[in-house]
Here is the input.
Amino acid sequence: MLAAEYVLGTLHGRARRRFERLARERADVQAEVRYWEDRLARLQHRFKPVTPRAVVWAAIEREIGVDKVVSLDSRRAPAAEASTARSPRWLQAWAGMATAASVVLSFALYREVNRPLPPPQLVRVEVPVPQPLPYVAMLHPQGVDAEWLVTVSPERKLIRVSASGKYPINRASECLELWVLGEDGKPRSLGVLPNDGSSDLPMPRGVSMPKDPTLAVSKEPIGGSPTGSPTGPVILATPAQRVS
Here is the structure.
């Protein structure tokens, strides 16, 4: 949602600057921005340009108080009358037709201006509601090159894990399981960590993030702990922080 707000331009101030710093450091955030840029850019092709009717311009002029008044200089009236008297008949006839045409056009414009406007159209606009930022933790066991970037979004019921490196376990019979320590200090499983690459895990039902969460990783039998609590050695524990 933050990436969508950033692309739409509704993310302002310090929140926008924090997001830009985060995007410079994380490839997954950059991917989210590119996704929303591509998705929102397609919307502009759904709208066709429409030429407004004359009544629209007339309504605008009436609304802003434009008064088109053609004034004649009284001092030039005698000269104009003399010139008209000396004009050829065809010029006087042309002037008469132009006056008649002006009257007809004025009447047509009057009817158009006073024609009832069409009923307003309701347009539904969906505005994304900002959600709290996720918890983030970098899990890096000592002595090995394996590490996991864990992002927990409780409001979205989503856990995203990006793994790199290899942790030395027997992958045929062992796995690494992610835990969160609750307010009561009891560990609750968040799922099995991927061996490599990125993976999205659903937030387990009934599991909530405490105010100051700690994430831990334990070595378990393939498929995860059979008891709902860590059965193997805990290889690391580290606090998770809300992104700010």
Summary: Residues 69-77, 79-87 have pLDDT under 50 and may be disordered. The first strand starts at residue 135 and ends at 139. The two ends are 15 Å apart (CA to CA).
